[in-house]
Amino acid sequence: MMGFSMDRKGFIRTIAASGAGAFVGAKLFGKLETPSNSASPGKWAIGNWDQVRALFPLGSEVTYLNTGGLGPTSQPVLDAVLEQNQIQARTGEHFHKLFGVARETAADFFGVNSSEIAFVRNASEGNSVISNGLSLRKGDEVVFDSHAHPGGSFAWMNRQKLDGVKVKIFEPSSASVAENLERLFDQVTKRTRVIQVSHITATTGLIFDIPAIAAEAKRRGIWFHVDGAQSAGMIPVNLKELGCDSYATSGHKWLNGPIETGLVYISSERNDEVVCSHIGAYSNDVYELPSTLSYADSAVRHEYGTRNSASVVGLQTAFKLQKEIGREAIAKHGAHLSQLAFEGLSGIRGLEFLSPSDPEMRSSILTFRVPHLECGVINSALLSDHEIRCRMVTERGLNGVRSSWHVYHQEEDVDRYVKAVRSVVASL
User: Fold this and answer.
1) Residue 4: CB partners within 8 Å, gap ≥ 6?
2) Quick check: bond before 57 cis, omega within 30?
3) Which residue among 11, 16, 158, 176 sits deepest, i.e. has the most Cβ atoms within 10 Å of its Cβ?
C-alpha cells in the first residue's frame, strides 16, 4: 500500500487517473502515466481456505454466520479503499474516471456490457431505480415473492401507495422448482406489468429458477426484475444467461466489498424504458440551458453527482479477489458447508428446516426452526453462550434461525455450530 510520501512520478500517476486531473497533470508535467492504484489479479497468495481466511481481519472471538446481512470486508479491499482515499486527499481530485474502469470489471464479472451497469449504493437503491423508473399506471400489477427483503418490496409498495399500482405476492415453495413457477404465475394476469423475485431468498436461501421465470415473463411481455442481494458473490451469476431485464445487488454481502456499494443492471434492449428518477451531472450526454437535455446512452444515466471513487475501487478489488479464489470454488465451498450443517442438525429432535431439502434448491444459507421455541431465544443463546452470530428470521412468521456459510468458514466451524444448536435446543 502506498505510504504518505509521494514523489513526482507517483503524483503524475494519480493525477492522470482523474478526469479533470488529467488536464492539470499535463499542464504540470507535460505527460501522463497509467495509474496503478487498483489491485491486480495474482496479487494475493491463495492456495487453500486457510489462506483465504487469512485475508479477512474478521475476529475469531465470535463465529460469524451472518454474511446474508453483512459480509465482512477483506484486507485487500480495505487496503484499496484506504490507498485511493489517501490519493484523493493528496491530489484534491475526484477520480471519477475510475468508475469506467471498475464498470468494465463489473461487466466482465456478470457477463454483460459495461453500458448495462450503473453503480448504486446498495441493492435497495438499485431496486428503486427500476421501480421508480418503469412507467406504471393505476391498476397495473406487480408480483413478487412474499419473502422479499424490505429493500426489494418497499419500492413497489411505495408505487402502490403513491400511484395505485397493485402489489401481489406469492409464497415460495421449498418443495420443487415446478411448484414455485406455478405459484408465481398463478398470480399473473393480463394487468401484470412487472415480476420480481429474489434470486436467492434472504429468509431461507431458496434458489429460484431465474431462466425459467425469465423465459415465461418474456413470452408474456412482462418486465422481469431480480433482487440479487443474496446471489452475487455466493454463486456465479451470468446475467445474459439468466435472461432477466434488470438485476440489482449490493457489494457489502457475499461480495465482501465496501459498505454502501452496489450496482444495477439494465438490459441494453430495454434501457430507455427506465426513466431517471434521480438525475444530476454525469447522467447526461449533451445539454443546453434551458431547453435541451439528453441522457447518457447507457445505464450510466442513473449515476449522478460527486461520488467516492475509493468505494468503487474497493468493490472492483472485491470482484478481482473472488475471481482469483474461484467463483465456482466459492459456491461449492459454501454449499458443502451448508450441507454438512443440514446433515448435522437433522438429528435434533423437534428441529424443522425452512430451507429446501433439495440441495439443488438450497444455497449457502440454511434456516431452521424449533416450533415450540422462539427464534429470538435460540439466536440470543447461540451468541451469548456459544459466541455464534446468526440471524433471526421473523418475516412471515417463520420463527427461524439463519446461518450463512462463506469463504472464511471451514468444517470445524460447522462442527461447532451444530454442537451449539444441539446444546441450546436441549437446554430450552
Assistant:
1) 86
2) no
3) 16
Write out the DSSP string of 386-426: H-EE-EEE-GGG--EEEEE--TT--HHHHHHHHHHHHHHHH
Cβ of 379: how many Cβ atoms within 10 Å? Answer: 20
pLDDT class for 371, splitting at 50, 70, 90? very high
Kindly report the CA angle at 170 between 165 and 173, in degrees rounded to 5? 160
For residue 100, give the amino acid letter: G
Q: What is the pLDDT of residues 57-97, one digit of tens each?
A: 999 999 999 999 999 999 999 999 999 999 999 999 999 99
Mean confidence (pLDDT) of the chain: 90
C-alpha span between 371 and 352 (Å, rounded):
8
What's the one-letter identity of residue 394? T
SS3 93: coil
Q: How many CA atoms lie within 13 A of 167 on its CB side?
A: 19
For residue 284, give every residue at least 6 positions away whose Cβ sits within 8 Å of its Cβ, in sequence order, or none.
293, 294, 295, 296, 301
Q: Model pTM?
A: 0.90
CA distance 425 to 428: 5
For residue 368, the surrounding DSSP H or E stretch is strand 365-369
